[in-house]
Amino acid sequence: MSPQSYAKQREIVIQWLNTVLPDLRLPTEASDEELRACLLDGTVLCRILNRLSPSSPNEESSENSSVSQSENVKRFLATMDELGIPRFEVSDLEKGSMKTVVYCLLSLKLHFISSGEELSTLSTITKAESIDDDGSSPGSLQQFFGEEMRNAFPGLKLQCAMHNQVISEPSPAVLKHVGHKFHEVFQLKQACYADLPVTKILEMMESNSLESAPTQAILHVVYGILDETAETMNSEIPHHVACLFRKAVQEMGRRLSTQADHLRTQNNLYRAREEKYRSKIKELEALVSVSRKETKHVTVQPQQIRSRRKKNVSWFSASTLLKCFHPTSQTANSKLEEEQKVEKQEMMKLVKENEKNILELAAMRQELDIVGMVHKFCSLEMEAEAKAAIAILQLKIKELECLLADSNNKVKELEESFESKCQSWTMKEKIYQSFIDFQFEAMQKLRSSSEAIKQEVLETQKRYSFEFNHLESKLKAVTDAAGNYHEVLKENHKLFSELQDLKGNIRVYCRIRPFLPGQTEKLSTIENISENGQLVIANPSKPGKDGQRSFKFNKVFGPDATQGEVFADIQPFVKSVVDGYNVCIFAYGQTGSGKTYTMTGPTGATEEEWGVNYLALNHLFKVSQDRKSNMVYEVAVQMVEIYNEQVRDLLSSDVGITTISQPNGLAVPEACMHPVISTSDVLDLMDIGFKNRAVSATALNARSSRSHSIVTVHVRGKNVKTGTVLYGNLHLIDLAGSERVDRSEVTGHRLREAQHINKSLSSLGDVIFALAKKSPHVPYRNSKLTQVLQSALGGQAKTIMLVQLNPDATSFSESMSTLKFAERVSGVELGAAQSSKEEKDVRELLEQMASLKDKIAEKDEEIRRLKSLRDLKPRIPQQHQL
Ligand SMILES: Nc1ncnc2c1ncn2[C@@H]1O[C@H](COP(=O)(O)OP(=O)(O)OP(=O)(O)O)[C@@H](O)[C@H]1O
């Protein structure tokens, strides 16, 4: 027993003593010596017995100061012996340890306990005694369990003590060992048993922690699982929780059966005690009867004595007489009196003894009655409570059994499903195994085939690399060939171009303008445009192949072609101007087909939208700039228009021009010649020129220009080293619209305009076709236009015709006549163009040729003369004849 627990027990004993004997007022923390001093004379001990059992015979002695100290203590100890309470020795009270005294008093308290509270306290003490050896804090633990049991079984006041004995509660050591597990379980109030890991539950079950757990804890677990099951209606209890549940219920069953056994034992104990008391009562009754008999005897005795006395009186009288007469009879009388006296005393003594026995018997009866009553009461209460508890527990057991059965069913179901799942998994495993085997085999095959393929790939790679090298060399050859081909193609192109130059063909480029933003009917006459210059036109009123007509030109530009793309094809001709050639570019087409757009560009054109006029002059400046180390160029511009067969200078305020020069001279010498040195000069001049141009509206084109505009660029180049001078000129002509009169819906003034335009254009055609036929008479003089362009069309110039087309289906017939005219023009050979230098060179060559011819003629004459001389001298040998 640890000093602390002993001190606690002593404290409880002191408290109890103070409760039983309030006047004692012993301090709770009183030491062993203070307690000893209090108990030493035995008075307090006897008073306790008196209080607890007022009928106790100790009352007298305790209150009686005459009774000695040792007597009191001995009586107390005798009572203890009688009650079967472990006692102490007198010497223990006098000196040495007070533990046995304290323990004895505690046992006494337990013996006389009559209230639940006291019982629980006593049970606490008793338990403290039993757990003391583990050195834990027994008092607090036991109080905790006492409280716990009260909570677990409300109303079982007397059973508290029994519970503590009956239900084998865990020892603190065990609790210390396993308690944490239940602590963990208690922590599950907010959590879920199903969430507990299986290992934890197994640990709890395997370590016998359930057996050593407090009932409250087990009930807690059981209720917890039940609550959880109730909350999660129809849900299955997890297998491990079901196991724990079964174990907990089994443990509860075990404890209940232990409790029932204990109740039976307790009952037997009480019965034995009752028997003991009954036998004691019988003994006492026998004693009483004996004493009664004795009393009877005693009462009989005086009668006998009286009778005897009577006899004696007679005898006395006789004896007195004898005494009187005989002295020895006196002696006998006194003896008798003495005897009587002694008998009287004995009788008194017997009466007293009898009274005492009666009192004792009454006390014992009372005691027996009390004990019997208490026992009966206790038994009844215990039985009732046990019955109630058993009923509750049986109910609970039934519930638990039901739940257990459910759980077992569920477990069975789970086991079955587990079994079936196991089987299916085994099946699956087998399938997977076979699948894996199959896969493995396939993999092996694949591996071997992969090896073979690898080998094959390596070989193929080798072959491929060889072939690749071979191919590379071949490709190189092909690339070279392709390069050569391009070279050859270029060469061919050049040759073709040269051939064209030599033949002097008019180059015809066709350009189709796009549909204008305002044009709603977008039915196009253009069927197809080929790269090689082929254009297919479809008649909208004649669908199919019959309505189609194909034309071939040098190039056809589609609606998407840009100004730059168009100029790119013209550029080499423009360049040839600085080499001393005459170049004539004219745009031909019906009104609104885009002639002005191509030649000049749209109103307020950006640099990208510049027309041929600007781009050509720009290019001329660029080339002249590039050649400035060798050549010095002078560029001048004339700008005239032919309106109603009248030539007008567009760069001067003078109205008319009457003189038109002969071929090889200036076409319009009267027109102002404006030297220009930069593109901006040209732009300014053109602005002036176009402002002066006659412009009037027609039904077909709101800005239709009704005159032919001719921009002539004169280039004079002088070689700075040789001093050679070259002349070239470039005619940029924007013809008036070529539409037929009836379509223009014009009358009067406008009709005359249209007639003039048509006349000049047909004159142009006549000139071109006369040239094509190599006719001796070329009708240049038929119109002002042909007169002005005589030098440009006469065979010394490179001529480019830009045929403009409106793709709209409504313009089909106009487009057809334009294209037919252009087709005829494209076949015209004007003869090889010549530069001003070449002309001179040819003349010189002709002169040389003529002189050479003269020399050859001279030589021929000489040969002839020599031949005739040889004929005259036949003896000359054969070799000398040559
Ligand atoms: N390639 C093109 N891209 C965009 N718009 C174009 C193109 N060609 C012509 N146009 C537009 O078509 C309209 C008519 O063009 P343009 O005035 O150049 O015709 P035209 O043949 O000169 O007419 P006219 O004979 O009456 O002088 C203009 O609004 C012009 O901007």
From TrEMBL:
InterPro entries, per the entry: CH_dom, CH_dom_sf, Kinesin-like_fam, Kinesin_motor_dom, Kinesin_motor_dom_sf, P-loop_NTPase
Record keywords, A-Z: ATP-binding, Coiled coil, Motor protein, Nucleotide-binding
GO cellular component annotations of the record: microtubule cytoskeleton
Residue ranges annotated for the Calponin-homology (CH) domain, each copy included: 7-113
SMART domains xref list: CH, KISc
Keyword ATP-binding: yes
GO biological process, one term: microtubule-based movement
Molecular-function GO terms, alphabetical: ATP binding; microtubule binding; microtubule motor activity
Chain coiled-coil ranges: 383-417, 835-872
Top-level lineage group: Eukaryota
Residue span, Kinesin motor domain: 505-828
Keyword Cytoplasm: no
UniProt-annotated binding residues for ATP: 589-596
Entry-linked PANTHER family: KINESIN-LIKE PROTEIN KIN-14P (PTHR47972:SF50), KINESIN-LIKE PROTEIN KLP-3 (PTHR47972)
Family, similarity comment: Belongs to the TRAFAC class myosin-kinesin ATPase superfamily. Kinesin family. KIN-14 subfamily.
Protein name as annotated: Kinesin motor domain-containing protein
Species this chain originates from: Gossypium darwinii (Darwin's cotton)
Lineage summary: Eukaryota, Viridiplantae, Streptophyta, Embryophyta, Tracheophyta
